[in-house]
């Protein structure tokens, strides 16, 4: 059966003499894998689709449960991300995150992925990554609650704690024993990124990296694993 899919290449692994197996995030089906034949040959017509972060329209065919790409046309190549290490590594974190969480289609997050790649091409990498992880966590059912202190409902202004189990922030008056304390400047920055659309994000780095450290901590406590590629960014 032939199918038309819009997808971004996340990963390409060699398969046999000249084929590759791609992991792709598709608008229609979420994360899928598909073989692309003969792509390691010099003049392969579909070479571009095996490049990291290629956004293409694919024609795929399925045979005995295996999907292969029979044709593709490139919407946009984000290959130039490789020229900026920060952007490239941040995009790799997004790819890993998506692969872990989104086996099913998630149209909103797909659109966010494209916006993120656009930002990263411009070098706006850290704040974009924070924003994407916040949105991705929300889509996956682990979103952080930014409505102030979850116990007293007041704005948090002095010391701030994260109650990992409930994904809520707490002020100093209600901090639970095992809640994670972190800097108020990190909380302010996280709050700001959460409320800023992708196309208005900025280049601020130091506080933004602290946000990533906090998210790394939250993900490992709440979900029990580390995003490996995030460790290269921190
Ligand atoms: Zn409170």
Query: What would CATH call the class of the largest domain?
Result: Mainly Alpha
CATH superfamily of the largest domain: Recombination protein O, C-terminal domain
- Overall mean confidence score, pLDDT: 95
Report the portion of residues in β strands.
Answer: 25-35%
How do the SSEs run, as a string of H and E? EEEEEHHHEEEHHH
Radius of gyration: 20 Å
In the residues, how many domains can be counted? 2
Class of secondary structure makeup: alpha+beta
What are the distinct ligands in this entry?
A: zinc ion
Q: Say how many strands there are.
A: 8
Proportion of helical residues: 25-40%
How far the N terminus sits from the C terminus, by CA atoms, comes to: 44 Å
- What is the CATH architecture descriptor of the largest domain? Up-down Bundle
Helix count equals 6
Order of strands side by side in the largest beta sheet?
3-2-1-4-5
Largest sheet: 5 strands, antiparallel
Provide the low-confidence segments as ranges. Answer: none
Quick tags:
single chain; 234 residues; alpha+beta; OB fold (Dihydrolipoamide Acetyltransferase, E2P); de novo design (two linked rop proteins); 2 domains; five-stranded antiparallel beta sheet; three-stranded antiparallel beta sheet; 6 helices; binds zinc ion
């Amino acid at each position: 059966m032939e199918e038309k899919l819009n997808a971004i290449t996340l990963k390409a692994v060699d398969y046999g003499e000249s084929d590759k197996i791609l992991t792709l995030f598709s608008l229609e089906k979420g994360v899928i894998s598909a073989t692309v034949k003969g792509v390691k040959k010099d003049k392969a017509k579909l070479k571009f689709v095996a490049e990291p972060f290629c956004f293409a329209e694919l024609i795929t065919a399925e045979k005995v449960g295996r999907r292969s790409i029979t044709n593709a046309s490139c919407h946009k190549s984000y290959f130039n991300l490789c020229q900026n290490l920060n952007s490239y590594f941040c995009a790799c974190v997004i790819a890993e995150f998506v692969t872990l969480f989104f086996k099913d289609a998630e149209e909103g997050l797909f659109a966010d992925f494209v916006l993120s790649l656009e930002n990263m091409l411009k070098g706006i990498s850290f704040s974009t990554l924070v924003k994407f992880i916040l949105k991705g966590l929300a889509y996956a059912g682990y979103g952080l609650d930014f409505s102030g202190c979850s116990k007293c409902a007041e704005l948090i202004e002095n010391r701030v704690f994260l109650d990992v189990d409930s994904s809520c922030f707490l002020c100093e008056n209600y901090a639970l024993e095992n809640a994670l304390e972190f800097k108020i400047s990190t909380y302010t920055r996280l709050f700001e990124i959460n409320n800023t659309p992708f196309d208005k994000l900025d280049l601020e780095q130091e506080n933004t990296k602290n946000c990533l450290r906090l998210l790394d901590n939250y993900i490992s406590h709440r979900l029990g694993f580390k995003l490996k590629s995030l460790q290269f960014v921190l």
